[in-house]
Write a structure and sequence with these properties.
Rossmann fold; five-stranded parallel beta sheet; binds adenosine-5'-triphosphate; 16 strands; Tumour Suppressor Smad4; disordered C terminus
Amino acid sequence: MVGCKFSRSLLPRPRRLLLLVNPFSGRGQAMQWCQTHILPMIREANISYNLIQTERQNHARELIRQISLPEWDGIVIVSGDGLLHEVINGLMERPDWEQAIKTPVGILPCGSGNALAGSVNHYAGYDMCLREPLLLNCCFLLSRGGVRPMDLVSVTTSPAPNSHAAPRRVFSFLSVAWGFVSDVDIESERYRGLGSARFTLGTLVRIASLRSYKGRLSYLPPTSHTPQTPVNHLLPPLDQPLPTQDWVTIEGDFVLVLALYQSHLGADLHAAPQARFDDGLIHLTFVRAGISRATLLRLHITCRAFRLQPLSPRGTLTVDGELVPYGPLQAQVRVQTFSIYVIFIYLFIFSHWMITEYTARQVYL
Ligand SMILES: Nc1ncnc2c1ncn2[C@@H]1O[C@H](COP(=O)(O)OP(=O)(O)OP(=O)(O)O)[C@@H](O)[C@H]1O
């Protein structure tokens, strides 16, 4: 009997996951898919979990700011990219953020865009897929395990209009968009019932009446010899001029500016094939409006930081697909190789734990 207790205490405890479910993400199927696909697979993998349904915007963010993180081996978002954006920012707003951001985080795609899930699916070697096949691949990866470090990008946005607040900083894992991409993202909200097809319809509508915006885009190419020093060292405050050395500035009419740090902008949109989770780069695509629509000029470059100054009075700007105040914005990648400023999240966990536990049980039996 004593021997039995002693042996059990040596066994690793089952993994504990906090599942955060947005019941309204995508076509509103997240809870249904939990019952039919996700929970059976998690139970089968002998993982214990607590499931919380988010009740409103920023619910997850507030929760993550307060919870005791050591109780959890990982936080899994059962939703789209917007809820992951909340969770990452909740982790970074904690006083213990340096430790907190090391908490493994996973995503089980139930949203409409599912960009990060698309990137994970791609780098796991699976063919591009959507909806339940994508969810099943991600469930399988979650159960099988493996974690990867990932860069975050620190974005400074303008304060809300008529507010005297200071510029706001948010952390981004996916994208900053201005013009065509953010217009489609926000305007297609009204077709949410269509799932990912909402972006196709939104794109067709926007192409039919293509807009361009005046603006100034400055970026710091990765080849510049910048010193590796602390946070946001590449950028002066938003209201101060950029250094002239090393920076490249373009001014004119833009159809779109898209900064992406994952390979996918949606599960079926392989927009930056060269991007890797921890390449320390922002993949910047911009399309300039030419004399006619036939002369649109698309450029793709990589950089470590950029500043965008919209000069047209109205427009939409998004960070990870979420609307932010329209106005000057700047961003810089925070690379996981910085020693004290190591910023990374882990995607998908536990294979070695499950193997260890299984082996230990077999030995015990
Ligand atoms: N219970 C809720 N009610 C309303 N909004 C919520 C709720 N829970 C989370 N949200 C907010 O809903 C927004 C969209 O969520 P999410 O990104 O997860 O789904 P999605 O937009 O369908 O997917 P994707 O981002 O992949 O297109 C997020 O800004 C999130 O903060």
